[in-house]
Amino acid sequence: MANEVATTDEKPFDITSLSGTDKAAILLLSLNEQDAASIIRHLEPKQVQRVGGAMASMKELSNDKVTAVHRQFLTDIQKYTSIGMGSADFVRNTLIAALGEDKANNLVDQILMGSGSRGLDSLKWMDPRQVASIILNEHPQIQTIVLSYLDPEQSAEILSQFPERVRLDLMMRIANLEEVQPAALHELNDIMEKQFAGQAGAQAAKIGGMKAAADIMNYLDNNIEGLLMDQIRDNDEEMAVQIEDLMFVFENLAEVDDRGIQSLLREVPQELLQKALKGADDMLREKIMRNMSKRASELLMDDLEAMGPIRVSDVEAAQKEILSIARRLSEAGELMLNGGGGQDEYL
């Protein structure tokens, strides 16, 4: 159940128990297939996977739950004018998908795959292991461009499929990459055309760089991330420092404003929060407690005190999961993440 934040309004159904994905799924299930498909076409691949998975897992929905979702949706859109109501940005912000790696159901996949994705964009719809197998024997520079282009979370999963020695080479290439020239894009596109009959333009693309490397590192398994960072440091100390400065870690949540923390708490299950806070410092704990209702914060404190020993790997995994939710909310404009280097930017 999502965490209770401070509020003075009583609602017939506690909608805070629903994640953003659940609410989007319920709203889409309320529509006919054609209308739902027209909305889903505007979502990103990861968002479709999450919302589609939630839609497929829902069996029976009570009237109270559906009514509560509709009521919140109507309240939210009343904050906007009719200007731009049909834009993709509005749809994304309203029906944003939440944390999770659930596979999209077949119907949603067919709708999106039929909307014109081709070439490099086609890889966004594929399982990371499948992408890894496709590019495994390609030139390292081609592999670098693919990893720099795709979503950091997907790229991290792809990178995890490569041998340890290859990961180091690719990560350093990504960090040093600033611009992809037309010839390289044509070479990459030729490979994709053989697989998907796609095509791409000839303009240079601004992908890669230290920020891209840091984003991918954020999504890697803790063991792989630590080992890879040590290897980068051994090869290039300055590069390692720059990447670490751009990485967002769990303790940085203490720098998020109260409104952003409250948005985050609505999306994080209680059990996940408990595990993550087990290894958090007092400043972050206090920040979290301050943005919960008195009753919820007292219950959380009691649960933390009653919790027995927990493996460090479980704590780190919980913190990574919450950071993934925070990044998704940041992309939706619901909270702002501050990079380690001190510069405010949306991740």
From TrEMBL:
One of its GO terms (cellular component) is bacterial-type flagellum basal body. One of its GO terms (molecular function) is cytoskeletal motor activity. The gene is fliG. Belongs to the FliG family. InterPro entries: Flg_Motor_Flig (IPR000090), Flg_Motor_Flig_C (IPR023087), FliG_a-hlx (IPR011002), FliG_M (IPR032779), FliG_N (IPR028263). Keywords: Bacterial flagellum, Cell inner membrane, Cell membrane, Cell projection, Chemotaxis, Cilium, Flagellar rotation, Flagellum, Membrane. It comes from the Bacteria. Its main location: other. GO terms for biological process: bacterial-type flagellum-dependent cell motility; chemotaxis. Residues 18-119 form the Flagellar motor switch protein FliG N-terminal domain. Residues 231-337 form the Flagellar motor switch protein FliG C-terminal domain. This is Flagellar motor switch protein FliG. Pfam families: FliG_C, FliG_M, FliG_N. It is a peripheral membrane protein. Residues 128-200 form the Flagellar motor switch protein FliG middle domain. FliG is one of three proteins (FliG, FliN, FliM) that forms the rotor-mounted switch complex (C ring), located at the base of the basal body. This complex interacts with the CheY and CheZ chemotaxis proteins, in addition to contacting components of the motor that determine the direction of flagellar rotation. It is found in: Bacterial flagellum basal body; Cell inner membrane. The keyword Cell inner membrane applies.
